[in-house]
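Record type: monomer structure entry
Structure origin: computed from sequence
Chain ID: A
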Amino acid sequence: MNVLTVEYGRGDSKKRFTESLRDTGFAVLSNHPIPQELIKAVFEDWAAFFTTTVKHEYLFDVKTQEGYFPFKSENAKNYNIKDLKEFYHLYEWSKLPKGLTDKTWEFFKRMSALSNELLGWVQEETPADIRSRLSMPLTQMTEGSRETLLRPIHYPPIVGNEEVGAIRAAAHEDINLITLLPAATAPGLQVLDNAGTWHNVSCDPGTIAINAGDMLQMATEGYYRSTTHRVINPADSENAGKPRYSMPLFLHPRADVRLSPQYTAKSYLEERLREIGLIQQKPKPAPTDSATL
């Protein structure tokens, strides 16, 4: 599987980026405009946050999906074993937890701008016949969106008594348009090819991995692949005993955007959140007693 590393700012960047996204669902961006010292500082801030009991004061709101999600809150779609992680959902309209610095907002702002720029590359490089079937240009889908999400994630050390089959993040596809993932503090991210083989994704400092999500796949009628990926447990005891941190930004369209004849962004997001256990399944309607009709 040839996930391309694309140097930001080169003349062929747009073409190579979208080719990799089209062929593999992933691309890796180097020489990007997010300062590495900013990324490092934000990682350090959130690593400190996850070590404190303060996090429990920010327990997530089921309705808004904002806040702290405790360890083993989420499972992959069609997989009933919970992931070995805790995380926080932060939106542009969120209140930053106490103890965090404004560097998180600077990081969020810069990542959002870059994600929209990359979505513009996708819009520009997508064939005209595919673009003509979009409900609106991709870049317009995110205008005024309140759903774009920064998710700081903490994967605790593997201690050896985990449930059989439990891993840091089970095989899944992302829900949104595109995801930007600055290099995590440790390797472990893998992507699945069409032959069923897993491949490691670069974790080199100074790079950002980008992948297509289900919403982009749906909006483009499958032209871009929402590729299955996972985060595996370390195989060696030294790395297993260390925590791992990552901080993806999920670029989302506005809730009212039409992705397909069947789904708006809101209806699709709600369906997927039920499937991964972050909101409750809708109760099934009670059977009708024909004798009372």
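Annotation 1: Residues 287-293 have pLDDT under 50 and may be disordered.
Annotation 2: Residues 5-278 form a domain with the Jelly Rolls fold (CATH 2.60.120.330).
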